[in-house]
Every structure is written in structure tokens, then in C-alpha cells.
Amino acid sequence: MSNSQLKLVRKLSQKKFRNESKLFVTEGLRLCEEVPPAQIEFGFFTREFLSDSRAAALVARLKKVATLEEISPATLEKISDTQTPQGILLIVRQKFSALEQVAEKKIIAVLDGVQDPGNVGTILRTAAAFDCGVVMLDGSAEIFNPKVVRASMGAIFYLPIAVTTREEFLRAMTSRKILAAAVDNSAEIYSRHDFSQSPVAIVFGSEAAGVSEEILAVAKKIFIPMSGHAESLNVAISAAIILSEAVRQVGMRDEG
Questions:
Q1: What's the burial of 129, exposed, middle or buried (CB within 10 Å: 0-12/13-18/19+)?
Q2: How far is CA 44 from each of CA 32, 71, 72, 142, 205, rounded to the nearest angstrom?
């Protein structure tokens, strides 16, 4: 490994450099299998990694489309973001979608200041499972943060994801119903809402601050009723529950 490549990988642990270079790091067998070949800049693997037939097949496939170099486990540990590297690391080019592309989906999950990388990655994974688009608004965790990448389980490679401001989002959604997960006296129980009548953008806010006032001013509020002792639900769990119901209703309408 050249010193310049080593420095590059180390720098990619910084958000500022990821933004400047438009690159990020993906590690591990499962995630690296999901990377579209056209997005791979270069990569590294260890000889031990090749002892597994599935891993060896992945390296052989990727070598046909990108430069992959064998390195020692000790070197990989120095540049890896994980405590126990699996033996493969790829440098990947970032890719975003335009708001217009995201808007082609009937259901859009909107993250408004969701800061926890694990929650963001889990919501992306859920959105991919339900074939939803995603919009990331101000204050949300960066989608190429290593923890987000891992928690998404490869969803970031196939989801239509747009990153924009609240103002741009609201201007682009004038023909779409905006819903906000929020608890107040005017909110409707989520399962009673008719998601099938028109395309929707469902906004989820941070657990600390909730959905921003700017979004709440124009959105219809929905909530998940709880009968137990918990004060609130984790935002990723809330997103899974609401998106599941929205997709169920839209599917029933399409089947009918």
C-alpha cells in the first residue's frame, strides 16, 4: 500500500474529508458484496480473507472492475474503523439522488434532524425493505458516516436518497401530502390515516427535539398510541411501524 493511499483511507474517517473527496469507506464481506462495481475507487483485502470461498469469489469478481491490493492484517487494522476487521475494505464513490428521483416513490421517509447514526442507518434499511424514497434534512447524521453505512446493511447503495434543506424540501413537496410523526392534541392515530389516497412524505424528527416547527406548520400530524409505561418509541422503531402501515395500505389499494 502506498503512503498516499494509506493517508487517504485514514482521512476518510473525517466527515470534512468525505465531503470534500466525495468518497467513503465500506468494510466487511456482506457490505462489500452490495457495492455497485461502478462506484468502487480501489480496495484492500488480506490473504486470510481468501480462505472463505464466498470471500474469495467476491475478491475475484471485484478485481475485474477495480484495483484491489493484498495487505497484511496489521495494516488493515490500522486503517479500519471496526475493532475486528473482516479482511476487506473498499473506497467507494458517493452517490446521491435528486429530489425529483426520490419523488418518483409513492412513499418518502424524511429524516429531520435525526442525529444518531445507528437510527439513521436502520431507517435507511427499513426504507429499502419497503421500497420508499428517503430525504435527509438539516441536522441529520451524514449518510456516509461509517456507523450509518454499517447499520444500513447496504441500503445506501440502492435507495434513492436526497440531501437537502427544509426550505428546498417544502418547495419540492407542494403536490404531495406531508405527514409528521408528532404527539399533540391535533395528531391522528397513524393506522387511521388513509395513506393510499395520494403520495406522502412522512417526516421523522430527532428523539430529543422532534420534527422542526417549520415542518410541523405545514404537515398533518400522526402518532403511534402506546398503552405501556414507555414514554416514547425509538425513532427507527417508529419509522418501521408507520412505513409498514403506509406500504400495507398502498399495496391493498393497488391489489384492489
A1: middle
A2: 11, 6, 9, 24, 38
Domain 3-93 has CATH 3.30.1330.30: yes
Cell reading at 89 = 475494505
Query: Pairing mode, if any, of strands 88-93 and 23-27?
Result: antiparallel
CATH 3.30.1330.30 segments of the chain: 3-93
pTM of the model: 0.92
Per-residue pLDDT tens digits of the chain, which is 256 residues long: 567 888 899 999 999 999 999 999 999 999 999 999 999 999 999 999 999 999 999 999 999 999 999 999 999 999 998 888 999 999 999 999 999 999 999 999 999 999 999 999 999 999 999 999 999 998 999 999 999 999 999 999 999 999 999 999 999 998 899 999 998 888 999 999 999 888 999 999 988 889 999 999 999 999 999 877 777 789 999 999 999 999 999 987 666 5
Write out the three cell numbers for 34.
452490495
Q: Are 30 and 125 in contact (CB under 8 A)?
A: no
Fold of the domain built from segment(s) 99-255:
Alpha/beta knot (3.40.1280)
Contacts of 15 (CB under 8 A, 6+ apart): 142, 145
Write out the residue limits of the CATH 3.40.1280.10 domain(s) in the chain.
99-255
